[in-house]
Specification:
Number of domains: 1
Main location: membrane
CATH architecture: Alpha-Beta Barrel
Order of helices and strands: HEEHEEEHEHEEHEEHEHEHE
Structural class: alpha/beta
GO cellular component, one term: plasma membrane
InterPro entries: Glyco_hydro/deAcase_b/a-brl, NODB_dom
Membrane topology: Lipid-anchor; GPI-anchor
Helix content: 40-55%
CATH superfamily: Glycoside hydrolase/deacetylase
Number of strands: 13
Pfam families: Polysacc_deac_1
Length: 248
């Protein structure tokens, strides 16, 4: 066999074994699949009100899912306070997942830019909590085929929602609470709820109301992964020791 042919075969073998080659497009989930479960999810953190959300959930024997950005609402995820929040959520048994690095409109990004948005969050999660996320939520709920290809290449399922508390749209706490009341009365088999832990009224007023209302209606409040019957992470290991690479 000629040298050029050998090189071609070798490169093909590398491509087939690479974890970022030729994976299927990511699945998009909009609903839970385990009956009588409700997943309360929170976007745009980590932020200071995460603690209020977590305490309300833990006190009720419930868990939530936090979709974190790397550098957005609360600043750089590697800042000591931010990293502490990420680790706190994970240690309390909540699921942590990716909301991408900078909360960009993903439909406007190139293949390389998308991989960068995903990878930076993965790297931060590995350093801070020792895990690689299996789920991501695209900012604004926006995605196209390229986003799905990149998410699939990176082994992540794209998670949307089937209920919106409307907190990011300017709903008052009373309005969000009414939406949860109406939801409980409608009583769908499962609930995948969108909230944002960066709003004080959501964390301190809406979340306690949602927990009480949904549990009274018979729902078990679980993580996104649990409501789908899937693993929350692609890998789980030990967190890294803080060093000079922990920066945005």
């Amino acid at each position: 066999m000629r040298l050029s042919a050998l090189v071609t075969v070798a490169l093909a073998a590398v491509a087939l074994t690479s974890p970022l080659q030729k994976r299927a497009k990511a699945q998009v989930v909009t609903k839970c699949t385990v009956p009588n479960t409700a997943a309360l999810t929170f976007d745009d953190g980590p932020f200071v009100y995460l603690y209020d959300v977590s305490k309300a959930l833990v006190a009720a024997g419930a868990k939530g899912t936090f979709f974190f950005n790397g550098d957005n609402y609360g600043g750089c995820i590697y800042n000591e306070d931010q990293a502490k929040r990420v680790k706190y959520a994970y240690d309390k048994g909540h699921q942590i997942a990716s909301h991408t690095w900078s909360h960009a409109h993903l439909n406007n990004l190139t293949w390389d830019q998308l991989h960068h948005e995903f990878w930076l969050v993965e790297q931060a999660f590995q350093k801070i909590a020792g895990v690689t996320p299996a789920f991501m939520r695209p900012p604004y709920g926006e995605y196209n085929d390229l986003v799905l290809e990149v998410a699939g290449n990176r082994g992540q399922t794209v998670a949307i929602w089937d209920f919106d508390s409307r907190d990011s749209a300017g709903a008052t706490a009373a309005q969000s609470n009414k939406l949860y009341d109406d939801l409980a009365k409608a009583h769908p088999s499962t609930i995948l709820a969108l909230n944002h832990d960066v709003y004080q009224q959501t964390a301190q007023v809406v979340v306690p109301h949602a927990i009480a209302t949904l549990q009274k209606a018979g729902y078990k409040l679980v993580t996104l992964a649990e409501c789908l019957g899937r693993p929350a992470y692609q890998s789980v290991g030990a967190p890294a020791v803080r060093d000079d690479s922990w920066k945005c």
